[in-house]
């Protein structure tokens, strides 16, 4: 099966209208499933658009010795970088042996250039944060339109306003740019696809955005410093859907900065989700990822943590597994015991 790279993108495919700069833009996260690698944006805070799966060429408008207008290649913007589209005219031009659709844009260093827009993705109407453990993705508004894709809890994405009619399940639209897998040079442009996420799986509450951001900052600290910081954010953002994550981190800190008591066991199990991380230690924050296991893989468990932990709204012990490809620790919520 061909792998696909998907990017949450702009609601208007033509990207011609000027938009105000928004707080949240896009970067990458992975929600792979069923043989497809799916990369969609998470939020950053600069510009109003992002370069998609390949580098985007940018140009300087100049004139040759005969006075004719032409566009000189100045460089490339790397995939994942933010840019600000300035709106206005788009042009189809020929340069350096290729054809390009270009528009004016401001780069991260404030340089204004003409940018190839084939691989540029704009923000959508509203930033939301995923609060379900895994938000299901749909390709339509009907009861049978569920895909195999999911979006991880805590991810910030852009969605369209609610559709006024014909939307009995109250789903929110996002648009994805879909690029065939490439080997070597780029062979074709991508296509645009519409997907939906359930409104019940998302939040627009400021406390959810703030709690998520603060927890990301705290995770970068030594666990010995977590306790006071977590007490503070729980007090300030106590109505957030991510209090459970903060409480779990506080439990980690109280147990000695991630050290966990373990016990020997012996049973087999089946992995219940795709791309489950396998870690060198039973620790979500400090455990080095040594590999991944996928749905349906058989594993043998020889150790487990003595305590049950909560991660992303799910509860379980950590299991030390042995599989055909990798050995290490996985979170037990993704293992079904035989």
Written account of the structure:
The chain contains 3 helices and 26 strands. The chain is mainly β and 338 residues long. Among the domains are: 49 residues, no CATH class; 76 residues, SH3 type barrels (Roll), CATH 2.30.30. Helix 1 runs antiparallel to helix 2 and helix 2 packs antiparallel against helix 3. It starts with a strand and ends with a strand.
Strand order of the largest sheet: 6-5-9-8-7-4-10
Gyration radius, rounded: 23 Å
Mean pLDDT reading: 74
Q: List the helices and strands in order.
A: EEEEEEEEEEEEEEEEEHHHEEEEEEEEE
The amount of helix comes to: 10-25%
By DSSP (H or I, 4+ residues per run), the number of helices equals: 3
Structural class, by secondary structure, is mainly beta
CATH class of one domain: Mainly Beta
Largest sheet: 7 strands, antiparallel
The CATH topology of one domain comes to SH3 type barrels
Strand content: 35-45%
What is the number of strand segments?
A: 26
CATH architecture of one domain: Roll
Shape: elongated
Which parts are unreliable, with pLDDT below 50 for 5 consecutive residues or more? Answer: 1-47, 179-189
First-to-last CA distance: 30 Å
